[in-house]
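Case 442 in the screening queue. Each case pairs one protein sequence with one candidate compound; here the compound is glycyl-adenosine-5'-phosphate. For every case the pipeline is the same: read the inputs, emit a complex structure as tokens, and attach any notable structural observations.

Predict complex for case 442.
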Amino acid sequence: MTVDHKNPELMEKIVSLCKRRGIIFQSSEIYGGINGFWDYGPYGSRMKRAVEQLWWGEMVETRHNVEGLDSTIICHPRVWKASGHLDKFGDLMCDCRSCKARHRVDQMEDQTACPNCGSKDLTEPREFNLMMKTYVGPVSDEEHIAYLRAETCQPIFIDFNQVRVATRQKLPFGIAQIGKAFRNEINPRNFIFRSREFTQMEMEFFCEDAESMEWFNYWKGERIKYYREKLKFTEDIIRIYEHEKLAHYAKAAIDIEFLFPFGWGELEGVHHRGTWDMSRHEEFSGTDLQYIDHDNNRKVTPTIIETSVGLDRTMLALLCNAYDEDTADTKKEGQETDVRIVLRLPAKVAPIQVAILPLSKKLAEGGEKLYKDLSSRFRSEYDETGSIGKRYRRQDEIGTPYCITFDFESAQDNAVTIRERDSMNQERVNVTQLREYFDTHI
Ligand code: GAP
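Case 442 output:
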């Protein structure tokens, strides 16, 4: 490793690599871009789906007590009144009268001067609501205002009865959802760390209040284990921040933080939400959301433990952790430059898991056949253009863990060379063994 992960320059390198290789880039770039919105390109979208799938597998597919949901982005506007978002969800902001920049007051080191131009001519701080507004139907008036959801968990609370009845789940059980959330952030920044449109992966676990702290600790443990074992984040780059100030209804809250190049930042929150959400939606909707405990003949308002993580922040953390510049052995593969940029991503989330590279265009038929065999099972790419060394470098830059070279001997001995990204070691494997090889290694 030659890269210091606390180095702010690392961020610039990652942003530039992401743009150059079609991983993530500014939305609407040909119109000058739109601040706080990012597009995931061919490699980014594949990686994003893989991360999403990993989380879904971990949180839903392998747990009989967690159900999935895919709700709408726009809900009844009263949902956001009940949740408190319309009244309280905002930041204090002020404007600089000189340069017209707008700032979040809590992020200003010196709250009397503009961080942009130094002017002291600032407006009084005022509340700024982060909910994004739209109109539903043909009339754009007060009555038809609706909001894009600011978090994916609210639809989970309001669909609680539907899911419970359909699945016959009993307390304790969870409902999980992955989807877009929108916040009109005053200062979107740090690439995809804080944007205005982003994806959340949230799980709300409904339980008895008496058992809630046990479940809180359970989910905290599960989530840390996930980062260590599945995303391969080592102890030095993740830490727990325990909230000191808690909401009046909560018994505990922690953030799982990641060491980004710009410092520690929140990746995920594990929150004890008490009975607040269910009580508020009962009050505002007039619908009974209590759980009937038939065994003990009583009604319970479930207490909620939440795990909430941003998919985009997970992507950024993975990219920061994976980025490396390697000077070892680069000449071995016939390269002129002595620096190799490599994303050391876990194979499970790499955009491409196997690249098939015929040594010559004359070997296209064999290479294409391999691609056909492997691409139904592993994220694969076929590339026959350029020198083999350059093709390896391209794959290193997008984090491909395995490259297969199909050479002139392959047609004779039915074997290919597999080159491993991190060690750059090569081994000869029979084509009939390839699926098994990758099943074990990926
Ligand atoms: N339901 C609880 C909730 O939404 P949050 O701390 O506001 O809590 C949860 O958000 C997670 O969503 C954060 O830990 C972060 O990963 C992600 N997130 C929040 N705001 C974001 C933004 N503007 N851009 C990208 N990700 C964001």
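Case 442 observations:
- Residues 157 and 278 are 7 Å apart (CA to CA).
- The chain has two domains: 9-80+142-319, 352-441.
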